[in-house]
Amino acid sequence: xxxxxxxxxxxxxxxxxxxxxxxxxxxxxxxxxxxxxxxxxxxxxxxxxxxxxxxxxxxxxxxxxxxxxxxxxxxxxxxxxxxxxxxxxxxxxxxxxxxxxxxxxxxxxxxxxxxxxxxxxxxxxxxxxxxxxxxxxxxxxxxxxxxxxxxxxxxxxxxxxxxxxxxxxxxxxxxxxxxxxxxxxxxxxxxxxxxxxxxxxxxxxxxxxxxxxxxxxxxxxxxxxxxxxxxxxxxxxxxxxxxxxxxxxxxxxxx
Amino acid sequence: xxxxxxxxxxxxxxxxxxxxxxxxxxxxxxxxxxxxxxxxxxxxxxxxxxxxxxxxxxxxxxxxxxxxxxxxxxxxxxxxxxxxxxxxxxxxxxxxxxxxxxxxxxxxxxxxxxxxxxxxxxxxxxxxxxxxxxxxxxxxxxxxxxxxxxxxxxxxxxxxxxxxxxxxxxxxxxxxxxxxxxxxxxxxxxxxxxxxxxxxxxxxxxxxxxxxxxxxxxxxxxxxxxxxxxxxxxxxxxxxxxxxxxxxxxxxxxxxxxxxxxxxxxxxxxxxxxxxxxxxxxxxxxxxxxxxxxxxxxxxxxx
Amino acid sequence: xxxxxxxxxxxxxxxxxxxxxxxxxxxxxxxxxxxxxxxxxxxxxxxxxxxxxxxxxxxxxxxxxxxxxxxxxxxxxxxxxxxxxxxxxxxxxxxxxxxxxxxxxxxxxxxxxxxxxxxxxxxxxxxxxxxxxxxxxxxxxxxxxxxxxxxxxxxxxxxxxxxxxxxxxxxxxxxxxxxxxxxxxxxxxxxxxxxxxxxxxxxxxxxxxxxxxxxxxxxxxxxxxxxxxxxxxxxxxxxxxxxxxxxxxxxxxxxxxxxxxxxxxxxxxxxxxxxxxxxxxxxxxxxxxxxxxxxxxx
Lengths: 255, 303, 298
Fold this sequence. Notes:
The complex is a heterotrimer of chains A (255), B (303) and C (298). Chain A is an alpha/beta fold and 255 residues long. Chain A is built from eleven helices and ten strands. In chain A, a hairpin with a 2-residue loop joins strand 9 (218-223) and strand 10. In chain A, helix 4 (104-114) packs across helix 5, helix 4 packs parallel to helix 7 (153-165) and helix 5 crosses helix 7 (153-165). The model of chain A has no long low-confidence stretch (mean pLDDT 90). Chain B is globular. Chain B has one domain (62-302): MetI-like fold (Orthogonal Bundle), CATH 1.10.3720.10. With 303 residues, chain B is an all-alpha fold. Helix content of chain B is 74%, strand content 1%. Chain B has a two-stranded antiparallel ribbon. Residues 1-8 of chain B have low confidence and may be disordered. Chain B has helices at residues 2-6, 13-48, 57-62, 79-110, 113-128, 131-150, 158-182, 186-194, 199-210, 212-228, 231-236, 254-261, 270-302; strands spanning 66-67, 75-76. In chain B, strand 1 (66-67) and strand 2 (75-76) form a beta hairpin. With 298 residues, chain C is an all-alpha fold. Chain C folds into two domains: 6-47; 50-294, MetI-like (MetI-like fold). Helices cover 72% and strands 1% of the residues of chain C. Chain C has helices spanning 6-44, 50-54, 67-98, 103-117, 120-134, 144-168, 172-180, 185-214, 217-222, 248-257, 265-294, and strands at residues 57-58, 63-64. The N and C termini of chain C lie far apart (49 Å). The chains are: A alpha/beta (255), B mainly alpha (303), C mainly alpha (298). Chains in contact: A-B, A-C, B-C.
């Protein structure tokens, strides 16, 4: 399939369940390489669950299950050779910043170490690179040994991004990353994302419609586990999206 | 693709192997509890089983004649021992249930902050006093007190042991009971107070019915503890095979009989085997009590 | 100003009565304990001396001290812990980190609950059947190792329960963060979960020490002698497989009920030492817990 080769992520007829409750009702879409792809929609629409299905951390929730296919780089995630490789290929940033109870250095070195890298010189350089990419280096370079959990919320969120970058992902998923941080930090991270777009594919889950509009090339409107509309930002945020509900949601009339 | 997988080093074979090993160890240890429960039943039953062929079940359970060391005609009736265990447990619970649950209500509803913390710590320490110390307390502290207060000839008796068991089973009742009360949503309390109920009424009409199952489980666990207790009852009941007429008669329990007599028997003798069969009886009783308590607790979680 | 109606006054009084009533319930449980422990200590303390603690019992326990019993208790606690702590911690790791929600996990939970509820004397019978005769460490005779293993099985639920609580106190988001970067379950446990719950686990282990030290019924069937005449007063009084030992708890039972010509204060002194050991260990665990809570990392 030549088409499949050019797609970063393909989702076909995805259905997910928590126990008897169906979250996604058979959705299909694809994400191209090196685009910023935004997913918007009200709470409980299945945005987070979608990300967790892609990197297969959904299976850590008891009673969850999925049907349909998700392919990353053409490889079915359910049949992947190593689920850990798959997760390393995908950087994941959760809504609330999670500094692991380790030093700042160890937070960023955690993933490379888990992957078996012990070379101290490589790690030093790598930690610096990731912290720089996440625009955190200048603030923490003198206290890399202090606890990551003691940083401020905005710093912790950038630490989380640095950690997500530390395993050299090809895809970066951000799940409502700005929910717990101030607008200035949010703008700084948005600038970081524009830089990172050159190197990787970015999936941006957000409940801030304007953020999707600022950053993404294409936006998907997910509602109650179904795709209401998926199109380029010109259409989605223009005056005539195909679905009336998109217009209403984007313009704050409902949701 | 080839390029990108090159930059991702994989973990060493040794690391993977040790991870596999430790994980299988974790699984084995996880199953160990099941293995031990079956093991306990198996070994206790195995030691006692040969006597089953000679055992007259009616006599075993209902006869009150326990004369295991007779050289002429040993008698193995545990009726009196069962009555002993049951009577001690019942009297102990009659004392412990109101006090234990009352203390649970006090800790959960009337205490806050430092007082609550310290009370919980004291109750934790109360639970830590070894049973042999309780037995010693019964023997040398409470016994003279009971003789003096109630004017009875012997101080080591049913009442003494029951009092000890009550004190011993209170901590578990308080901690489980407090958990149960804590699980009652605050909105119930607020609603009761908004309707003008006093805290007294709130406890009676709202909290106790709402936490019913948890409190029942607390009582059952206390019962299990009381039935299984050995050293305290061995030292404080008077240890006489007897069906009690009054609170101040000496009695003997199933557990104490095993503790006192097993050391005197020879491996494989009838007496030895019967003591193990008593062990099977005890195991079964506590198994049922604990299972019930667990099911009751699960009942609250489901709502 | 707000005037008190008779109704409100009555309600207030009822409120106060309720409070006093339940406080009385709690006090009725706590105050006797203090009185009794105080009484034991007052009667026992004068008999406790350096000689009492460091000399071996003589003349069937009527003379001498309790050194051999202290060492015996230490032996039993040490070997029992060496077995049950690793098994218990790993079992708790299984239950909290690996187990899926299915009937088998439910069985394991039930087994833990029931193991905790089996009477101590039945554990003793199990020890006789399984360790004294079946495993036959010491040619069909009681031994320290049999007693220690019996107590290890018996206290397993204690360590499993406390470790599970300690593991559950580590927030789930830490685990998710680790899984997200491609760490395996075990890497997550080893690098994040265990280091951050070790204090809680240790508290559980400390509590287990006190529980193990006080047990009497199971060890008297499997490995503890009522009285042994020993010359040496060193630390290595016993061979863990070939010997029975004395133990503080059993010594109290023996002195209080069976020994002859014992000075009246001796059992009180033994009880004081035993309660002292148990309470000090428990208090240490509580202090440790409070201290660690104060320097949590998140």
